[in-house]
Amino acid sequence: MRVPNSVVLPVGTHVDCCQEEEVEEKRQDITAKITAMLAERKSNLAHCINNLESSEEPKFYVDQWERLKEMESCTLTILNLVAVNCMDHHDIKKLEATILEHVKNEELFPEVVRVLPPVYRQVEAAIVDIAQSEEMADHGMMDLQYLLSKLSQHKHLANLGRELLQDILRYLHRIGLVVWYEEIKQLENTVFLQPTFLITMFKLLVRYHLVQQLESIS
After folding, report:
1. Domain segments of the chain: what residues?
2. pTM to 2 decimals?
3. How many C-beta neighbours within 10 Å does residue 72 have?
4. In this predicted model, what pLDDT tens digit does every residue of 125-159 receive, in sequence order?
5. First CA to last CA distance, the chain
6. What is the distance between the alpha carbons of residues 60 and 13, in angstroms, rounded to a whole number?
7. Residue 9's closest CA among 88, 102, 132?
8. How many CB atoms are closer than 10 A to CB 147?
9. Exposure check for the chain: N or C terminus, fewer CB within 10 A?
10. Nearest of 34, 62, 65 to residue 50 by alpha carbon
11. How many CB atoms lie within 10 A of CB 156?
12. SS3 of residue 57 by DSSP
């Protein structure tokens, strides 16, 4: 909701736990809830903006007003929900094909046709090698400066600078090869070369009925 011109593909899992007629019913329910959520967000933003504009000293709230207006201008494109059975390889391939079909759609992603400098591919290949090397810890976490020094050991990347590496990491973060939380101060110098490790951690920490499970502990 905070990213300009976002495209969201809702994915419904656990189809194997539903009757066939339930799937369509739940699909319609989820779509309706998303529509209602977006309408409520739009209404809330308009209400907050109106409150700031009608305050006695609106000049004191210019920063807040600008942030709200920026959020208001962020458009979302919600694609049709894809229902999958995660235990079925065919369904996973169907989801993969759907994602690829959407990301190649120039109407959804006007910048999809973009020629990257060769150094982007070279850094990507080198990072894959580092992530798969035996010396890489299972958690895949690496200090940004140390990563730069490792990459600089490659002959064709000897002149790689930190600023260019950061640009490349932003691209690799967007395509999901690495995770780099540059906007979080405590993590801005840490690059996660194994995003699947984070998924495993989140699965341990964030789970269904977590509150009830914690409350059951004496």
Report:
1. 7-104, 118-201
2. 0.53
3. 14
4. 999 999 999 888 888 999 999 999 999 999 889 99
5. 39
6. 47
7. 102
8. 23
9. C
10. 65
11. 11
12. coil
